[in-house]
Request: fold
Amino acid sequence: MTTTTPVGEDGVKRRDFLYVAAGGLGAVGTAAAIWPFISQMNPSADVLALSTTEVDLDGIEVGSEITAVWQGKPVFVRHRTEEDIERAEDVVLADLRDPQPDADRVIKPEWLIMVGICTHLGCVPLKGQGDFGGWFCPCHGSHYDTSGRIRKGPAPSNLVIPPYEFLNDTNIKIG
Amino acid sequence: MSFEPKNAAVKWVEDRLPITGMLHHALYEYPTPKNLSYWWTFGSLAGVMLVVQIVTGIVLAMHYTPHVDMAFTSVEHIMRDVNFGWLLRYMHANGASMFFIVVYLHIFRGLYYGSYKAPRELLWWLGLVIFLLMMATAFMGYVLPWGQMSFWGATVITNLFSAIPVVGDSIVSWLWGGFSVGNPTLNRFFSLHYLLPFVIVGVVILHIWSLHTSGSNNPTGLDIKDKQDSIPFHPYYTVKDLFGLAIFLIFFSVFLFYAPNYMGHPDNYIPANPLVTPAHIVPEWYFLPFYAILRAVPDKLGGVLLMFGAIAVLFALPWLDKSRIRSARFRPIYKQLFWVFVADCVLLTYIGGKPPEGDFILWGRIATIYYFVHILILLPLVGLFEKPKPLPASISEDVLAKKPAAEETANA
Reply:
């Protein structure tokens, strides 16, 4: 059967070409068919629509903190005391595992807003505990300071600052 | 012919678990009659559709909520919010119809070529079991979107069991998990709708195992006698099946992309309302012949029995058909009766979709009676009195006798 197929000068038979072409088209078709089955597991439109959260700061006393929910995650909104701010600003950056000045972590120094998820393995740290007056993660013992920076324990980096903006003096939009 | 792996790793596994050899035997060297027509493609197409239904179904279950308050909206969530959700749901909904189309053609192929006859009785039975499981799965799947047709379809079908004397009402209440179709019903239907396809996979494996024990039937109905009659499954039938699949997928795509709701009912886009029944309630098209038989009988229990009987008699087919000739090609009278039977089934499907009034009732009864007359009376009698045409000596002889001229030009 193969003896009747014409062979080109380079030794490539018509059948070889058809074989590769059909296989190639089949691979492209298969990839196109698989795409929707992978894509369906990504966040759906209604989940994406909930990507911002507004928080009213009015009523959060100096020295207290609330936890807002943004994209299903806890966000710590802390009204820092003068003492907290001083402590955060006085730190020698060279001592930090993830060096970042306090000024880079806030828009207004009295409001510290950050995602309340430990950068180690995702637990929610407890406020007012630990060796640095900030937060302490009970899962594996990470200590964060009053700016939410990692100081001690297994976590590799500081608590994440979400994108947010002040809509006015007492309202912020996270996301 | 045994399988000798060349790759050392494959050989290592093969010595401990001979799965590669088993697959090689089933998909590669399996000796297949060399004269199979495209009517033999529908078995593999049914297998493909089972996989499509399972894969799309698993994905849909990731987004669906089986609760009476949320089921309907979760389906709309799939249609609007989930990435490609509309595509996946339409694939699954139309896929059910496609599955039944190929399975019905597969069954009629078996009826025409006598594929149910010895030694393939068990193969035929396993096929009917798959068919029954498919009907149960499709019915429960149709309930899940929790629209008006879902709810009232579930109510009507489960009420069939209330026809059973004495214990009927207790059975229906047990099926529902309550005193009407409700949340417990939806939850168990979802659970079973997820389970049954995997049971089908198990029976399909037995079906294929049994097929490979007897070997495939073929258009002549003759057994394979020597090497001249068969060719290896790969590449000849893998390629033929793939080509058939490509054509079939075009057909599937026409519905999927241009008429995705053609085979559904608009009423199922109305959320289920236990207080109002839709004016015209019909099952999905693939249940219509049986629905027509149910309604042909003016008695509750009689109708239910006859409907289940319509499938039960198919189990007896290998013994009802007295002819020893398999293929209708060599059975001049049976061949004509076969087409009358096909027309009768089409008529039943048509009647099943019409309201039970006027002439439709009469025609429904005539078609129902003929269905049973064909299987229970005509089939045994024809087998006894029909004079078959002379059979060719072998599959090979039949193939060569057909196209001697074409064969020569191909070899030139």
